[in-house]
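Supplementary notes for students who missed Thursday's class. We covered one full example, reproduced here. Read the sequence, then the structure, then the short commentary at the end.
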Amino acid sequence: MSNAKELIKKIKEDLKPLDEKILHHPCISALRQGNLSKNVLRAFAGQQYHNITSDLRSIAHLISRHGELPSRSWLVGLLQGEAAALDALFRFAEKLEVSEKDLKIFEPIPEGHAYCAYLAWLGMYGSKNIDD
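Structure (token representation):
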């Protein structure tokens, strides 16, 4: 790749089949049509609670390990984004009559934690040279 624009274009092209698969997933279609049950939405909220809180811890750990690197502001931005997502999730859960206690005791599906596990691993053991 000769420059960043070409790289981004290539990544978008490579991800297009996955984007289409997501956009046409039955759950997304049902959401658009207003046909998702409250139980499905509650499960989504519970899963997201565990993902977001895990990401908050992992990103905070990354900042503690790499806060002196030029990527610091990017990592802080990620942390702020996750904090805002958690606030929004609490508002979403409230509309579904789901308490924070309910979110905490929700049993997440293992498949939903693959990315969180990777981010946690990166926070604990990832390369010191994350700016490379």
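Commentary. The chain has a mean pLDDT of 89. Helices lie at 4-23, 26-32, 38-66, 72-95, 100-105, 114-125. If anything here is unclear, bring it to office hours.
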